[in-house]
Amino acid sequence: QVQLVESGGGLVQAGGSLRLSCAASGRSFSIYAMGWFRQAPGKEREFVAGISRSGGNTYYADSVKGRFTMSRDNAKNTVYLQMNSLNAEDTAVYYCAARQSLYNTNYYTERVQYNYWGQGTQVTVSS
Q1: Which residues neighbour 69 within 8 Å (Cβ) at sequence distance 6 or greater?
Q2: N or C: which end of the chain has fewer CB within 10 A?
Q3: d(CA 108, CA 122)
């Protein structure tokens, strides 16, 4: 079992930046592949970024590619989402997710592939 707690959300002007963090409890954090998802009002939760358990492989949704960067620090049991050039369409609740992975290189992009979820952190971008 792992518990996830997101932080770092807030209100930012269009063009600005935020860095989200997701702290995981428990041991063996490095066995989990991690993901970031987001859900805007009236919309389904969508994939944003995924990272392999080693941190060596990442994958991004087309809508954030080139603007967002996902990373992890296994020594600190934490993953990050650096968000630059934010726009109003990025406004959403951002969720961190985890799943055990047998492979160092795999990342996952589907909601159903993740077993554990945080409570979410609100990101609001004003235009």
Answers
A1: 58, 81, 82, 84
A2: N
A3: 23
